[in-house]
Design brief:
about 290 residues; 9 strands; alpha/beta; AKR; about 15% strand; 7-stranded parallel sheet; two-stranded antiparallel ribbon; single chain
Amino acid sequence: NGVRHFDTSPWYGLGISERRMGSFLFHKNREDYILSSKVGRILKPAPEFDKNPGIWKGKLNFDYEYDYSAEGVRKSVEDTLHRMGLSSLDIVYIHDLSPDNGDMKEDWVKYFEVAQKGAMPELIKMREEGIIKGWGFGVNTIEPILKTIEVSDPDIFLSATQYSLMHHKDALNKLFPVCEKEDISLVIGAPLNAGFLAGKDRYNYSEGIPDGFLKKREKMNNIAQNHGVDLRSAALQFSAAPKVVASVIPGASKPYQSSANAKSMSETIPADFWEELKSENLIAQNAPEPQAT
């Protein structure tokens, strides 16, 4: 499908994602793709580990602990390269250091202070050494991103759940202007809100759907049908439209979904569709509109 940007993390399946992706990429030309992973959780062997946190299924042989120190970040990058069997990463994101992290909650600021003194300077050093090409945060909220821009020298951020058809005003008005001013790129994660905009009755990473969102999706679907538009395709193009956005990374659990996502990026969506969404106040008036191709 022409996709050459791959994103993983030690957290995804507690090492399983990195092992699978490394096996896939091992025989590929390293110059042909962009690879990002994440730091902040160190995996620890735990054969009896059965906590099965969050959405990860199956038997997991690692537990984890948070470590945003300089030593922890360098170890995490080295561990990732060992798991993947690869020699380098392009982008490293400090992962889930955010107030929505249930392990941290209001203590996220304390973790941030550790990262400010440890992880951030170390990632800058690793960038200077050529081990990585860029770094930033991979988070589901805006505040840690803005705070990092104030105190350090990041290159790129993975902002998940914050810029989609359903929820985008804060990112559009608070985050994007700062990133544009500082010449910082954004990768948009969860552009479909974990399948919600593809018709699944779940929102982001839980079964709970915010009040009014089912009705809002229904209105959008009706408008989409009237214009002969696939709402999922519109959602992907919407998240990719701002100039500050370098890439969108929708998840795919089946091959056909990956093919459909790639095809969606070249579908023609009429300007009248976006105009009607704005006239019905379903999206922000100042939201960039994808250009019909």
